[in-house]
Amino acid sequence: MNVQIQHISDTEWKIPMGFVPGMLVPGTFFLSRQLAERLEEGALIQLANVATLPGILRCSLGMPDIHWGYGFPIGGVAAFDEDDGIISPGGVGFDINCGVRMITTPLTMADITDMNGLIEDLFTTVPSGVGSKSPTRLTQNDLSNILTDGLASAVELGYGMEDDARRCEENGTMIEADLEFVSKKARERGIPQCGTLGSGNHFLEVQVIDEIVDPKTASVFGVTEGQICVMIHCGSRGLGHQVCTDHLKVLEGAMMKYNIDPPDRQLACAPLFSLEGEAYFGAMAASANYAWANRQIITHLVRELLVKKFDVAYEEMPLVYDVAHNVAKWEDHEIADTAACRRHVCVHRKGATRAFGPGRSEIVREFRNTGQPVIIPGSMGTPSYLLAGTMTAMERTFGSTCHGAGRILSRSSAKRNLTGVAVVNELAKRGIVVRAPNTTTIAEEAPDVYKPSSEVVQIAHDAGISRIVARLRPLGVIKG
Amino acid sequence: MMTFEELEHTADVRMKITAPSLLDLFVESGFALAEILYGEYQKEPETISFPIEAKGNEVVESIVNFLSELLFLTETEYLVPVSFDLAAEGCVVSGVVAGVLFDRTKHTGGIEVKGISYSGISLAKTAAGYELIIIFDI
Lengths: 480, 138
What we know:
The complex is a heterodimer of chains A (480) and B (138). Chain A has 480 residues and is of the alpha+beta class. Chain A contains 14 helices and 19 strands. In chain A, the strands form four sheets. In chain A, strands 7, 8, 9, 11, 15, 16, 18 and 19 form an eight-stranded mixed β-sheet that branches. The two termini of chain A are 35 Å apart. With 138 residues, chain B is an alpha+beta fold. Chain B has one domain (3-137): Archease, Possible Chaperone, Chain: A, domain 1 (3-Layer(bab) Sandwich). Chain B is built from two helices and seven strands. The longest helix of chain B is centred in the middle third of the chain and has 18 residues, at 59-76. Chain A binds chain B through residues 40, 42-43, 67-71, 74, 90, 93-95, 129-131, 185, 188-189, 193, 198-200, 238, 241-242, 244-245, 248-249, 252, 264-266, 268, 407-413, 437-438, 440-441, 444, 480, and chain B through 6-13, 37-39, 61, 65, 68, 72, 75-76, 78, 102, 104, 107-112, 114-121, 135, 137-138.
């Protein structure tokens, strides 16, 4: 670990002011000593770079899955002041509202007699990988509705149940969406891809709940031991990627006007209330809505298949929750070190999950006493976790926690050291079926390239920024 | 010699791309992007072609914009690039990219690219020509 980094507690580290020139606040990240030793210098610099951005409040934060990305580190969280803060696509990423959701089913292990067959059927049903096309036939008008209304619009088109929206961050709609700032190119990329998984770390996983850690909260979340669940991880596809590309260009050009000169070009940004900043925010919100609709359509395809294969009722597969990983949002937070006042701030989460604690009005009523459900996916061979948001997260991390295990090995190292076939065979020995369009992705996404999910989640739990409710064991995985 | 190689990067694909001239650097960058998307693939005779143009205030920006345009064509036209016929004037590059339609049975082994990042981007003049370091978000 870099000698300038200060060890604050078992799970907390501090990057002091001056680590990079121009820092306005310090950096803080949450890791165990063991995992901190493996953190790349690049991630530390990126966390410190974020601390130089105008209007940043309190500190630049790294969640327990922090690693080297571009612009913000992956696992980066920062809140910006309403009056003099900025908005940056580098704090959201190309895959706007990449996120994860989970549905429960009435099925148990005893019902799944042919996991290979189920995974094969899911692979055929849900388009994935490079060049995949959606089974939906969206019109331009459908797309406009999706960009405006998000999940609700997908439900209106017949993909899901009305209750799904209640179990989704923001109810599946960011009302700030502004279609005027979503380009024709973005729309062209978006129409054929709504209802597709994508590739890379995106996945669809069949899991079983193998341990309930907090029975009371699990009961409120509607999960029980032995239950078969399905987890879906994907984002806003080419539409969101194009929105990021388009607006980065605009913001790059605008920075001189606002006298902003960030240390990394990918941190291009503009004041929150500027023409360029508001345009990006409107387009980003529309892309977030598209991502919620995308996950909703995939969920519908999965539910329909399970209805057909197992004769279960569609309504018996409710959404537990849907969380966004890459997004910027307006939220109210107590900024303790600025006269203990409640402030309206723009929170950027890049590879991080909102983890609002009990009492927040943004959470649906049934979860208001427990804190919101937080879904942390594992990595094909490692468990996923269901957690709950906490008051500590509200106080320390602007209501945020980690979003996954976090990579420790590069993709090139993974490919050098592993083959996809070997990974598939190894997982098969452990009873996990893996299916992908090609084996290269499987090698790049092998469990060994990620931090152990249990360690990362334990750090989040120990640091108090979310608390473990249940553990889910993977049974079958589709990688894009 | 024109070439590209993958460098270490934890989350994404970081490439070193070299070429004897700036124009060749655009071409090699295009092929680097294609190889991430499709893995190594046979360059079959072209059946489709599209005009492509990109500009920027400086060369690095032109390259990022060029790659973004190419990425757009791969996603919306299902283009797998086989050849580039480009000309450059200042920081404007334009021409034609030709190739074949994406075929899931032939163009396997790749991964989607979400965008072309400015993070850590660098362009250097070397004894052999030019060297570009660039991150593709995947």
